[in-house]
Amino acid sequence: MNKPLLFKGFDKTADGRLLKNYWAAPKDGKAGAHKVMLMAAIAYNLKNYLKRGG
To answer: How many domains does the chain have?
Structure first.
């Protein structure tokens, strides 16, 4: 789980927002997949926090 996440690329949502995609190798197992989901949740919550005036 101490391995850095690999950057996959950029993607856009239906409303035009830019997203950064990361991935974990299958050999990293559930811990790697959990880290990807956790980072996505943190980024989403931080963006909303900053949008409200933080």
So the answer is: 1
Q: Where are the beta strands (DSSP E) in 1-54?
A: 6-12, 18-23
Interval 38-47 mean pLDDT: 84
Output DSSP code: residue 52: T
* Residue 1 reports pLDDT greater than 60: no
Nearest-angstrom CA–CA distance, 49 and 4: 25
Write phi, then psi, for 18 (nearest 5 degrees): -90, 135
Is-above-0.70 flag for pTM? Answer: no
Question: Residue 16 falls within a domain, yes or no?
Answer: yes
